[in-house]
């Protein structure tokens, strides 16, 4: 953004601002922003693009950056917010918003993946997207390939940082046998080690068994449950709890038997003498405490 694009800070009605690229914000972070603004005021104005109305009434605005600050201002009961007003198209606003957010978060954010898709749908080439977002062309190409292939399971893994985007693309391209080669090569190149390798293997198994996964907005995930399915779910839950209780009772009985057996052995002088001869004159504290508790408990 050049200096000629920047205007002086003016007060803009919050209700006249449209968020064209909304973000889902962590509630704790939002509360911190709100508390900071309430105590110290707005340190940095938001940036908006002006949209003149045809009838000559008050203009509307599209948000370029500052969604958190604007929402905090509104939550504090403010109707206007200091803003820098620029002239830019909706597509330029989207790019500027993306670049602004890239400066503050890691590259595996789900918002970033969606923004890359929106830029692609807006007609930008992969090289142009890479240049504007300061990402590598290979990364952008990989994300677009996963998006176009509807690889929702792999995309969520990339978004959460479980696997690199390059590995996700290789998995998407490979057959069931080739996937094992991809994982082995990733291990040899030290791209997946330890817990990350185990999570990647579980992901591959889930993808082979259940498919590519569904988008989080899939209507089937919001399907209402029938009375019969709710009852079945309740009955299954009750049965699981009964099973846990049976296991707990069985474990308790075994522990009591072992404690009683050990108590009987410790009362045998020959057994105690044998322990001393083996250098085991005392019991571990946890076992000794349990024995002491069992002796003091009423029978």
From TrEMBL:
GO biological process, one term: chromosome segregation
ParB-like N-terminal domain sequence ranges: 10-102
Chain coiled-coil ranges: none
CDD domains (UniProt xref): ParB_N_like (cd16411)
Alphabetized InterPro entries for the sequence: Chromosome_partition/occlusion (IPR050336), ParB/Sulfiredoxin_sf (IPR036086), ParB_N (IPR003115), Plasmid_RepB (IPR011111)
SMART domains tied to this protein: ParB
Superkingdom classification of source: Bacteria
GO CC annotation: chromosome
Name of this protein: Chromosome partitioning protein ParB
Organism encoding this protein: Roseobacter cerasinus
């Amino acid at each position: 953004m050049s200096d000629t694009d920047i205007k002086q800070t003016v007060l803009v009605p919050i209700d006249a601002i449209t968020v064209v690229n909304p973000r889902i914000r962590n509630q704790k972070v939002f509360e911190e922003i709100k508390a900071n603004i309430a105590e110290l005021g707005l340190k940095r104005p938001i940036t908006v693009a002006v949209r003149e109305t045809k009838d000559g009434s008050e203009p509307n605005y599209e948000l370029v950056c500052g969604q958190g600050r604007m929402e905090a201002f509104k939550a504090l009961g403010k109707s206007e917010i200091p803003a820098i007003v620029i002239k830019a198209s909706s597509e330029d606003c989207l790019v500027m918003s993306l670049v602004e957010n890239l400066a503050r978060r890691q590259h595996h954010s789900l918002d970033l993946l969606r923004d890359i898709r929106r830029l692609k749908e807006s007609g930008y080439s992969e090289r142009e997207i890479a240049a504007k977002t300061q990402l590598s062309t290979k990364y952008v190409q990989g994300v677009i390939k996963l998006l176009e292939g509807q690889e929702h399971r792999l995309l969520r893994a990339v978004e959460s940082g479980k696997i690199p985007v390059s590995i996700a693309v290789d998995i998407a391209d490979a057959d069931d046998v080739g996937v094992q080669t991809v994982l082995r090569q990733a291990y040899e190149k030290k791209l997946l080690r330890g817990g990350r390798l185990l999570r990647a293997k579980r992901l591959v198994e889930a993808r082979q068994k259940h498919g590519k996964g569904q988008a989080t907005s899939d209507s089937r995930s919001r399907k209402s449950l029938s009375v019969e399915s709710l009852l079945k779910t309740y009955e299954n839950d009750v049965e699981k709890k009964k099973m846990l209780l049976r296991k707990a009772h069985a474990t308790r009985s075994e522990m009591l038997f072992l404690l009683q057996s050990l108590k009987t052995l410790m009362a045998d002088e020959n057994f105690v003498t044998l322990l001393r001869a083996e250098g085991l004159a005392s019991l571990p504290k946890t076992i000794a405490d349990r024995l002491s508790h069992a002796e003091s408990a009423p029978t």
